[in-house]
Design the sequence.
């Protein structure tokens, strides 16, 4: 009972948040000076052409009216028409979303592969050479700007060694794997630093917990104890950190997409702010927000499943 | 704590749970703290003493010596496409990036902590309202918010500060509120209230001092984040603008030259990492100090 | 709950095994990636395909609506117009219209069409022309302002188009040669609406086989193309916004030509074995806006002081690595009726000081210069201007804004100095003159709010004057007035930068940026 009400409560909380996001995005965008007509007309801008264009785009109506129309369309699944591409915003976003999702997923896979062994071994062999090296590496990795690391990778692997392509997304599945390896690795390294530190410290805490000593005294093998108690608790911590950072990551691929010229929603977002393509910016923001909210929700649910104490708010 | 926290908050939580004091004298036990503080102090001194450390101005164009290699005569780190000395630009740029680290962080620290304290202490509808606003901000894709604010105000260093101030106070508010909620039911607070102390005094004199240290540790982690954010925005052209020697902008400037002159983008990146490492070690050291010290 | 341990599964070994498993998986992933890398690029260009890398994504392939230059240059391969500019951008050639007659004192144009087909085999008729021209002309915020003199466009028979004007309009043919007035199939556009533009049907030499707007555009030869059959069969356009990536793609021979390599790499590329860099003359003019709402700029002496106080050669060297031409006339370099008698203002500090001394601001003044963020050449230009004007006591503070915000701040009469540029859409000087000189042209003389009665009068006359020799005289005079009055500072003419492999023959870009004619003659050797 407690569980269902917890789940229900968390899901309901999502709605006002998403609603609030549409409001904030809509009005925030229109506070930015410069209008879309300028983007389209460029240096051939004259007041007359701009006025006409704005009228045809429906931009000269009162803001409230525009907002209400936007919400009405939204409920019908219509994100509006992209001012820049002259296509439904939904289509534009749908075309770019796969690249970002592939990138995020790939990064996560690599991050997990890097972090889990490193974190666990560091904890189990605390103070050893591996641990020290890992700690220094994560320290430096945490402070490293992603775009810088990405550029360094490009210089070394793409320019000098020519093992990987310099940019882009590729056209087939293997093409994606090939093109996105360096960018995903760049993101994974940043992500890993946090995961490794978390895993290490929570594993260490769990290792030192009283119940571990008790179980050992009772004669249970070290590994059985670890498997049953230590790892389970470390996993909880990592799940939480993982979920949070993943949510953070979704909006944060902007920089990497820029450096590696990946046609994803991150770079679409930056470009669209630049051209004041309101429908696309609103659409991307909403889509990303939905992802973030869903991931947070799932993380909460997973956390509460692993550790029911969390449900007491 | 609810799972919907920010990455930095969680890292901060993890830092607190380490419980392995080192053996040895004070310096040995707090080596991390000292190294971190040392690095930062060195960078601050270098930034302040920049005019003494280099004969060049970060802005002086020298069209006769563009793209000089590192270790060229007179230019240890080389020059950029306008002939400007890279070392000079890094030293003067340190002023900007340190300003971001301290300036952006301190404001959000103060504002966020205050809001969190008030929210946690008074509870009720105020608390609910503030925390809903915080939830909203958290769900908002962070970069979108920052980019929108900067686009709204125009790309500049100051506007970047505003964007950071507007978006980063929430984590502090959350942490402070969480701790305040726990603290306000503690005996010493109840006692203070029973003695008739006014609310603001209870908050300022009784609750806050105990929690300041936690917030400070988080601030160290946040500072690293702010420097990286500032550099990222500078890189995207949304932060400090050329000819400013902000490190992120320098890396961006050097992008067109990575095929021929790698040093333009590489050295500023090293500088960013150094500052980040300094803050991280300082934060780790502080966390250790708090655990073993009291 | 309690389990008895067995020796084979004791702690350290289990952990070691787990680590090994993880390591193997990690290696496997890395190995797959490397294998994919070694597999190489499966889409290598063959000799019948020309691969071009562009810097900017496509907005739309609708010629009436596209505003991104790169898209505009691409659509010119897909559709035909009545008339088209030639390869040097100085004259007009027939396209769909094989001949035309001008009657009724210059107010009636009769075009005779060739028999042409769209890429789906359907015939192109005069009705399609009428539909396309009207559609474009009537589009809100579009290019209709070029054709305000047009009263009617009709198709008396399927091979003839008649355009009637309310008054003689000299630029008409040049206007019709503009990319926005391309001909599209009426039936299909009406039937398919927006979806049509993702796989459009046109009568140009190439047609679209696939389109992903921010990644790639694939073209194949239009089987019904009426002109000279191209040597190549396919064109592939890749969108690569990152400058370095484009250059690397060319260096690794994965593309045949690239657009807009960074200025500082031009010389580098030229020295690279197998590659060449190109500087195609363009219609781009870079200038500094001087808003006369700001008092000092009302004074001609101040404006002349600025002209003599800025070293255009230094700007060319620092901002364009030497690859630009100092500017003189407001009209693009060597375009039709360009006044070659005008020379760029030389850098003369003494003269600058003397003009300033004659003005109301002999000691100089403070002002700001609006520049666009992330515009490398523009930012360098601003730095040079700032340091040079400082010698006159004019303190320029540089205000950087993101593109659209900058444009907004430069218009409206509250600006001071601002960075602007112009490119032609038609080969006729009427367009640039309207924007630069005509106070009623809608642009307030490049937002300077300057006007000169003699120049204004000449603009109107030149617009209606059909005799080329007389027009040349009028435009010469207009250019001279603008040069002497200097309502804005003309800095330089910068070319279009391209780079290509030596294995490409015949790639050429005209001053309007179009390369569609060159694609007809292009050949690609093996490489």
Sequence:
């Amino acid at each position: 009972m407690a569980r269902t009400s917890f789940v229900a409560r968390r899901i309901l909380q999502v709605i006002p948040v998403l609603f609030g996001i549409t409001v904030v995005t809509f009005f925030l965008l229109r506070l930015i000076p410069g209008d879309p007509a300028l983007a389209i007309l460029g240096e051939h801008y004259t007041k007359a052409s701009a006025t006409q264009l704005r009228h045809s785009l429906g931009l000269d109506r009162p803001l409230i009216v525009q907002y209400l129309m936007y919400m009405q369309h939204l409920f019908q699944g219509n994100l509006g028409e992209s001012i820049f591409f002259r296509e439904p915003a939904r289509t534009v976003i749908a075309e770019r979303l796969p690249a970002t999702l592939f990138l995020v997923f790939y990064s996560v896979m690599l991050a997990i592969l890097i972090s889990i062994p490193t974190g666990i071994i560091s904890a189990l062999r605390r103070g050893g050479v591996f641990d020290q090296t890992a700690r220094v590496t994560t320290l430096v990795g945490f402070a490293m700007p992603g775009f810088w690391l990405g550029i360094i990778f490009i210089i070394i692997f793409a320019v000098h060694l020519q093992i990987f392509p310099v940019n882009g997304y590729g056209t087939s599945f293997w093409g994606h794997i090939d093109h996105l390896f360096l960018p995903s690795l760049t993101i994974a390294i940043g992500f890993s630093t946090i995961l490794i530190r978390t895993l290490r410290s929570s594993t260490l805490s769990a290792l030192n917990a009283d119940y571990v000593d008790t179980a050992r005294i009772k004669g249970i093998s070290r590994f059985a104890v670890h498997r049953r108690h230590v790892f389970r608790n470390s996993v909880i911590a990592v799940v939480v950190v993982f979920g949070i950072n993943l949510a953070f990551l979704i909006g944060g691929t902007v920089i990497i997409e820029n450096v590696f010229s990946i046609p994803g929603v991150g770079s679409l977002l930056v470009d669209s702010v630049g051209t004041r393509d309101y429908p696309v910016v609103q659409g991307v923001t909403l889509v990303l927000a939905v992802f973030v909210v869903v991931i947070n929700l799932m993380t909460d649910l997973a956390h509460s499943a692993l550790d029911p104490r969390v449900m007491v708010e | 704590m609810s799972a919907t926290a920010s990455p930095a908050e969680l890292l901060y939580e993890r830092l607190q749970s380490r419980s392995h004091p080192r053996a040895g004298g004070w310096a040995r036990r707090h080596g991390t703290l000292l190294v971190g503080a040392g690095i930062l102090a060195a960078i601050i001194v270098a930034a302040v003493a920049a005019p003494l450390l280099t004969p060049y101005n970060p802005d002086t164009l020298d069209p006769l010596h563009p793209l000089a290699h590192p270790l060229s005569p007179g230019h240890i780190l080389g020059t950029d496409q306008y002939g400007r000395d890279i070392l000079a630009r890094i030293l003067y740029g340190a002023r900007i990036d340190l300003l971001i680290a301290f300036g952006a962080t301190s404001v959000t620290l103060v504002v966020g902590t205050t809001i969190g304290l008030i929210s946690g202490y008074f509870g009720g509808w105020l608390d609910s309202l503030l925390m809903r606003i915080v939830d909203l901000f958290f769900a908002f894709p962070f970069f979108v918010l920052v980019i929108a604010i900067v686009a709204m105000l125009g790309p500049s260093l100051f506007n970047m500060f505003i964007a950071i101030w507007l978006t980063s106070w929430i984590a502090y508010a959350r942490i402070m509120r969480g701790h305040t909620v726990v603290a306000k039911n503690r005996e010493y607070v109840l006692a203070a209230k029973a003695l008739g102390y006014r609310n603001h005094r209870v908050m300022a004199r009784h609750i806050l001092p105990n929690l300041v240290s936690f917030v400070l540790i988080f601030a160290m982690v946040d500072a690293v984040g702010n420097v990286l954010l500032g550099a990222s925005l500078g890189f995207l052209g949304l932060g400090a603008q050329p000819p400013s020697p902000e490190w992120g902008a320098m890396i961006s400037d050097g992008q067109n030259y990575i095929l021929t002159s790698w040093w333009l983008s590489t050295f500023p990146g090293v500088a960013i990492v150094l500052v980040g490492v300094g803050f991280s070690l300082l934060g780790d050291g502080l966390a250790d100090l708090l655990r073993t010290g009291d | 709950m309690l389990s008895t341990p067995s020796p084979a599964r004791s702690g350290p070994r289990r952990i070691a095994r787990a680590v090994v498993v993880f390591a193997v998986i990690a290696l496997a992933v890395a190995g797959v990636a490397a294998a994919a890398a070694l597999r190489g690029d499966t889409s290598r260009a063959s000799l019948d395909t020309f691969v071009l890398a562009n810097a900017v994504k496509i907005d739309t392939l609708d010629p009436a609506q596209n505003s991104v230059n790169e898209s505009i240059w691409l659509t010119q391969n897909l559709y035909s117009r009545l008339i088209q500019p030639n390869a040097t951008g100085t004259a007009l050639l027939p396209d769909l219209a094989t001949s035309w007659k001008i009657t009724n004192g210059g107010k009636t144009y009769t075009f005779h069409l060739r028999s042409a087909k769209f890429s789906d085999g359907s015939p192109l008729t005069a009705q399609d022309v009428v539909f396309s021209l009207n559609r474009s002309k009537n589009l809100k915020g579009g290019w209709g302002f070029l054709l305000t003199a047009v009263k009617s466009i009709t198709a008396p028979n399927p091979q003839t188009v008649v355009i009637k004007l309310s008054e003689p309009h000299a630029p008409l043919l040049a206007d019709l040669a503009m990319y926005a007035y391309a001909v599209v199939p009426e039936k299909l556009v009406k039937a398919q609406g927006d979806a049509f533009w993702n796989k459009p049907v046109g009568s140009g030499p190439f047609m679209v086989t696939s389109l992903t707007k921010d990644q790639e555009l694939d073209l194949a030869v239009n089987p019904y193309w009426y002109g000279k059959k191209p040597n190549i069969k396919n064109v592939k356009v890749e969108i690569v916004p990152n400058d370095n990536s484009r250059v690397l793609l060319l260096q690794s021979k994965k593309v045949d030509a690239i657009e807009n390599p960074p200025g500082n790499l031009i010389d580098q590329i030229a020295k690279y074995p197998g590659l060449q860099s190109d500087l195609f003359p363009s219609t781009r003019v870079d200038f500094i806006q001087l808003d006369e709402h700001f008092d000092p700029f009302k004074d001609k002496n101040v404006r002349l002081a600025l002209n003599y106080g800025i070293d255009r050669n230094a700007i060319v060297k620092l901002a364009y690595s030497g690859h630009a031409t100092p500017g003189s006339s407001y009209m693009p370099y060597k375009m039709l009726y360009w006044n070659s008698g005008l020379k760029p203002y030389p850098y003369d500090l003494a003269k600058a000081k003397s003009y300033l001394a004659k003005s109301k601001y002999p000691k100089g003044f403070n002002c700001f210069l609006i520049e666009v963020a992330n515009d490398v050449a523009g930012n360098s230009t601003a730095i040079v201007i700032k340091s040079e004007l400082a010698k006159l006591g004019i303190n320029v503070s540089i205000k950087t804004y993101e593109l659209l915000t900058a444009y907004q701040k430069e218009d409206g009469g509250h600006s001071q100095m601002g960075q602007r540029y112009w490119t032609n859409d038609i080969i006729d000087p009427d367009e640039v003159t309207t924007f630069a000189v005509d106070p009623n042209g809608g642009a307030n003389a490049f937002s300077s709010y300057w006007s000169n009665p003699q120049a204004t009068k000449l603009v109107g006359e030149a617009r209606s004057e059909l005799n080329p020799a007389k027009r040349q005289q009028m435009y010469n005079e207009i250019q001279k007035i603008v040069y002497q009055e200097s309502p804005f500072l003309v800095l330089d003419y910068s070319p279009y930068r391209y780079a290509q492999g030596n294995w490409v023959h015949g790639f050429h870009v005209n001053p309007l940026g179009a390369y569609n004619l060159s694609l007809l003659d292009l050949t690609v050797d093996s490489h």
Residues 11-39 of chain C form the longest helix (29 residues). Chain C has a mean pLDDT of 88.
